[in-house]
Amino acid sequence: MDCDVDEAQSLGGPTQAAPSPAADCGTPVLRVDGLGFRYGARMPWLFRDLAFTVREGEILSILGPNARGKTTLLKNLAGILKPVAGSITVDVPSSYVPQDHGATSSYLVEDMVLMGRTRMLGAFRSPGDADREAARAAMKRVGIARLAGRSYAALSGGQRQLVLIARAVASEARLLILDEPASALDLHNQARVLHVLGELADLGMAVVMTTHHPDHALHCSRNTLLLFGEHDAQWGATTSLLTASTLSAVYRLPIDVHALSTPSGTRWITVPDLDGAPLVSHIAPRNEDDQVLTTNTTDREGR
Ligand SMILES: Nc1ncnc2c1ncn2[C@@H]1O[C@H](COP(=O)(O)OP(=O)(O)OP(=O)(O)O)[C@@H](O)[C@H]1O
């Protein structure tokens, strides 16, 4: 089979040109072209001219500092926000799992997961045995079968996160869009969720997820999108993109990347120097202090 190799996409960068995205034979299910967004005409652009592709069976990680627009990008991909520029093409049913776990619902967990079947049922059909079985299978896959009879509102934040992931799995979407799916989870459940996402990808599902864990991206994502400002985004093969120098520049913190040889292959781990954090806040976007990030800022007018 012939494999298309996508063009490398680099919108400037902290240290180097973006490496090419990894080649893949899967069919593209999500195509983003020239995407730009800002929350109002007088607001700064969060990102501009983004272009990337996600294929069936691929997990794309989106990384970047706080407030750089990762959630906003996911909301664009999920159709919750309308792009201000450019286009998004989604060729398969998708399901969005938000970062917020606000629990106002008094539904049982099994009913929450069953809601994932709504797209298949349409407006007027009640769930049948097959739908209940799909919901049960999704809960089992995510490891929350024992929570089925519990009230969703009475769960911990991490448990609710797993329920929402199970609901997305039950929906049989072919593209999962997940906002920090491991953020509220303990180490065991982080590993579990990454494992489940890997299994789903093996079955041909495409996954787009944001994460603050470079290790998670290195573990499971062929390609990564680094988002750190209007003029600074890179899309490329994860192991080539997430180097010590790039991560250190993006997060403004000395970060080492180590390769560990394990029986199942090379594992990459990132080690931040927690004493190396500058005293200035890293949260405020695009102020004068942020210039340290943009050592290789591209002149957008020249493109
Ligand atoms: N509805 C909104 N109206 C105006 N500005 C918004 C709105 N939602 C988010 N923002 C702003 O857009 C910027 C990007 O927010 P977003 O939540 O997309 O960032 P993020 O990269 O996901 O952040 P984090 O890593 O902290 O979750 C922030 O400065 C935020 O305050």
Automatic annotation (TrEMBL):
The record, for SUPFAM superfamilies, names:
P-loop containing nucleoside triphosphate hydrolases
**UniProt family annotation:** Belongs to the ABC transporter superfamily.
Q: Which SMART domains match?
A: AAA
Taxonomic source organism: Gordonia hydrophobica
- The organism's taxonomic lineage, starting at the top: Bacteria, Bacillati, Actinomycetota, Actinomycetes, Mycobacteriales
- What's the protein here called? ABC transporter ATP-binding protein
Q: Which domain of life is it from?
A: Bacteria
List the keywords (alphabetical). Answer: ATP-binding, Nucleotide-binding, Transport
InterPro entries found in the cross-reference section: AAA+_ATPase, ABC_transporter-like_ATP-bd, ABC_transporter-like_CS, Metal_Ion_Import_ABC, P-loop_NTPase
Annotated region (Disordered) at 1-23
Which residues belong to the signal peptide in this entry?
none
Q: Which residues are in the ABC transporter domain?
A: 30-254
What molecular functions are annotated in GO for this chain? Answer: ATP binding
